[in-house]
Design brief:
The complex is a heterodimer. By secondary structure, chain A is mostly beta strands. Chain A contains no helices and eleven strands. The termini of chain A are far apart. The chains are: A mainly beta, B mainly beta.
Chain lengths: 110, 115
């Protein structure tokens, strides 16, 4: 039981490049979400999903896309990376009472 | 929309002593959950304690306890017998009941436990 896994752990991009952050969970949770954490701040919700095929926007969705084709996977796509997207990204899956976070991906956009 | 405020950016405490971290929130909801998360230097988010708003009794987990004041919208975390391993960022978080499990976080408090 690996819990929530994220790949890669670190990534450096150039402005304008696109990439996908991977997130997978093996706990059969319906709820999954993506957050970003900027220095000195708490986590902010980017997108979330309440089940396969269902996604919605969070607090800071601009510049990101998500899809949920399976219960296990919830990838986050950066369409055209910008320096403002430099951050640490956390994926989480949850039951009704508890969120389980992945280890995070540190992304730097030059 | 909900907001969560942690007014203490940094705190320190001597090992074995007690420290209290503050959190206030603003919401028009009546049913919700409140959480404290710990983030050590490894950056892993670890759930410390959870409080259901409909429960009047304050939650406790070993050395960690909360003081939940619903009318005042206050949710403080008390750490007793502080240990060096408690050194971390602590985040207070709010979640509406039955609303997709979305968390709203405060800005965090950096806690340093000194030997």
């Amino acid at each position: 039981n690996a819990g929530v896994t994220q790949t890669p752990k670190f990534q450096v991009l150039k402005t304008g490049q696109s990439m996908t952050l991977q997130c997978a969970q093996d706990m059969n949770h319906e709820y999954m979400s993506w957050y970003r954490q900027d220095p000195g701040m708490g986590l902010r919700l980017i997108h979330y999903s309440v089940g396969a095929g269902i996604t919605d926007q969070g607090e800071v969705p601009n510049g990101y896309n998500v899809s949920r084709s399976t219960t296990e996977d919830f990838p986050l796509r950066l369409l055209s990376a910008a320096p403002s997207q430099t951050s640490v990204y956390f994926c989480a899956s949850s039951t009704l009472l508890e969120q389980f976070f992945g280890p995070g991906t540190r992304l730097t956009v030059l | 929309a909900q907001t969560v405020t942690q007014s203490q950016p940094e705190m320190s405490v001597q090992e074995a002593e007690t420290v209290t971290l503050s959190c206030t929130y603003d919401t028009s909801e009546n049913n919700y959950y409140l959480f404290w998360y710990k983030q050590p230097p490894s950056r892993q988010m670890i759930l410390v304690i959870r409080q259901e708003a409909y429960k009047q009794q304050n939650a406790t987990e070993n050395r960690f306890s909360v003081n939940f004041q619903k009318a005042a919208k206050s949710f403080s975390l008390k750490i007793s017998d502080s240990q060096l391993g408690d050194t971390a960022m602590y985040f207070c978080a709010f979640m509406k009941y039955n609303a997709g499990n979305m968390l709203t976080f405060g800005g965090g408090t950096r806690l340093m436990v000194k030997p």
